[in-house]
Amino acid sequence: MENNETRFLYAGDTALVIEFGNAINETLNARVRNVYNALKAMKIDGVYDVIPTFRSILINYLPDVITFDKLRKRLNKVLNTASSVAIEKKRVIVVPVAYGGVYGEDIKDVCAHTGLDESEVIKLHSSTTYLIYMLGFLPGFAYLGGLDKRLVTPRLKNPRTKIEAGAVGIGGEQTGVYPLASPGGWRLIGRTPLKPYDPHRESPFLYKAGDYIKFRPVTIAEYELISNAVASGSYICEEDII
Amino acid sequence: MGIRIKSVGPSCTIQDAGRLGYMDFGFPVSGCMDADSHYIANVLVGNDPKDAVIEITLGGFSCDFTSKAVVALTGCDAQFEIDGVRVPMYTAIYVDKGAHLRCGYAKTGCRAYLAVQSGFYLKNVMGSVSTNVKCKIGGYLGRALMKEDLLFFNSTEPNIKRVNNRSVKPRVPNSEHLSEAVLRVILGPQDDYFTEKGINTFLSATYTVANDSDRMGIKTTGESVESKAGVDIISDGMPLGGVQIPASGMPIIMAADRQTTGGYAKIATVISSDMPVVAQLRPGNAIKFEKVSVSEAVKIYKDRKKYLENISKLWKR
Question: Which domain holds residue A153?
Fold first, then answer.
């Protein structure tokens, strides 16, 4: 179905966009991911950076190495083959979160808005396996799909000027982790001791588009233990393959 | 040894050719705004064209040399002088130990570049030494340069003979182009979000560079570009030079520090060869957008590449 909607769009003389459709859903995003994975594996000469999003892929290329028309031909072949490729196994990254208290002072706002008590909010938030649709906005910032409708809470009227790295929040129908300190308007419900982004680690980013995230509630004591392990480089991230 | 920074003006950062390969993780590219001036500055002193340089915004920069050096200054003419004597732009210059380099403020243009032979001794982070202030990485301690910062050279034995008489003319003479810069664009990726009237406005009106422009984007004011039914899109990839139209209808040209994705429709994309012109725009400059085809843009791309390669072929490294 979405094949008919696939369009090639100009993005200047050194980039093009493959647009698969104009909606946010898992089917469309899986198509983006399959094509993205195929492109990464192919290493087309002249293509140097590829940005997968909810429903499109931006491809940066060197027009003296490969022309728009040649690239489009190559990409059409990829589109034809990648559509039949089975989606890879799901990689689920477990993200420990200390909910409420000093790390998530806005959890009381979420309770007030939703009518749920704190333990229900934590249970709902940590029982979903969230798909990472794309990374953007900040380095390593994951756009997650799948927040339980019962947890939807509007953003703060006055955004905070600084939110600490690792803060976990809810903003409207979205939830996610701030990978680095930044201003922001989400309701903060907890914090993870993990560093979703660390430029000095061998792999600077903990997760990529197409991975899944599951939050695991931890006590303050466990938060501190993990935090120390992360700081010393000895922490091994929990992962499930499903 | 190297240089001790004495003043920095509005902003000075270390930049190179950018941090490529991480855009899929949401990581901005950074790198020199004016890629041509960056390339030429390095060639003049005998460096690799991708080596790191100091990007000086408008002027106000000064430093002391704690060892002898060979340097080149490119980009906007910020009236550089060494020990009180004006020095030429786009020329390899020998500098004595103890010398003082300073500049005034550029009359036209916005960004000047200082390259030193052998390059600056800096830590590479994720494939680049470009400063990314927001992420606090690259460059000098992940921040803009400040007074009293000490930058070391990779080698303290400069070879002026190797670069004697190296001097070139810039491709884009500042003053002529910047009083009313014509930026060539390719329509898309979301030109279909705009009415015919909106596209005509975009391609015929004169826009003025706004005060709050920076390395992330050049904001403009002028006639509002009319959309069919709003400008919000589902966030997608952001190309270099992408021209976003936010709700106000005023074009924003996305530059080196742009986010990798964005949620406003992009009516057009400034061609890569005109981004060095964008880099030299300052608040108050006038801009017009001119439509070109992809094949025209690729021809311009190849001409520009040849121009730069010819400069590097003038001399052996």
Answer: 91-241
- Widest distance between CA atoms in chain B: 63
Mean pLDDT of B43-52: 96
3-state secondary structure of A179: coil
Q: Do B271 and A13 touch (CB under 8 A)?
A: yes
Q: Which residue in the set A55, A138, A182 is minimally distant from B234, CB to CB? A: A55
Which residues 6+ apart lie within 8 Å of A237 measured at CB?
Answer: A93, A94, A194, A206
Q: Quick one: A217 and A103 in the same domain?
A: yes
Q: Which residue of B has its CA nearest to A40?
A: B24
Residues B90 and B108 in one domain: yes
Is A71 in the B-facing interface, judged by CB distances under 8 Å?
A: no
Q: Are residues A133 and A179 in the same domain?
A: yes
The pLDDT tens digits for B7-18 are 999 999 999 999
pLDDT tens-digit map of A108-157: 999 999 999 999 999 999 999 999 999 988 889 999 989 999 999 998 98
Read off the pLDDT of residues B278-292 as tens digits, 9 standing for 90 and up: 999 999 999 999 999
| Domain end position, chosen among A60, A82, A104 | A82
Q: Collect all residues of chain A within an 8 Å Cβ-Cβ radius of residue B23.
A: 49-51, 60
- Residues on chain B touching A50 (C-beta within 8 angstroms): 23-24
A117 CB within 8 Å of a chain B CB:
no
Count CB-CB contacts under 10 A for residue A233.
10
Chain A residues close to B125, C-beta within 8 Å: 199-200
Interface check B308 vs A, CB under 8 A = no
Does the ipTM surpass 0.90? yes
> Whole-model pTM?
0.93
Q: Which residues of B touch A24 (CB under 8 A)?
A: 234
Residue B314 within any structural domain of the chain = no
Residues A138 and A45 in one domain: no
Q: For residue B115, give how far its alpha carbon lies from the nearest alpha carbon of chain A (Å).
A: 26
Task: Find the residue in B nearest to A182 (Cα).
Answer: B134
- Chain A hits for B187, CB-CB cut-off 8 Å, are 10
Per-residue pLDDT of A32-58, as tens digits, reads 999 999 999 888 999 999 999 999 999
Residue B242 pairs in a beta bridge with B269
Question: Of B170, B195, B229, which residue sits at a domain end?
Answer: B170
Structural domains of chain B, count: 2
User: Which residues of chain B form beta strands (DSSP E)?
Assistant: 2-8, 11-15, 53-57, 61-65, 69-75, 81-82, 85-86, 92-95, 100-102, 111-116, 150-152, 180-187, 207-209, 217-221, 232-237, 242-244, 252-254, 261-264, 266-270, 286-291
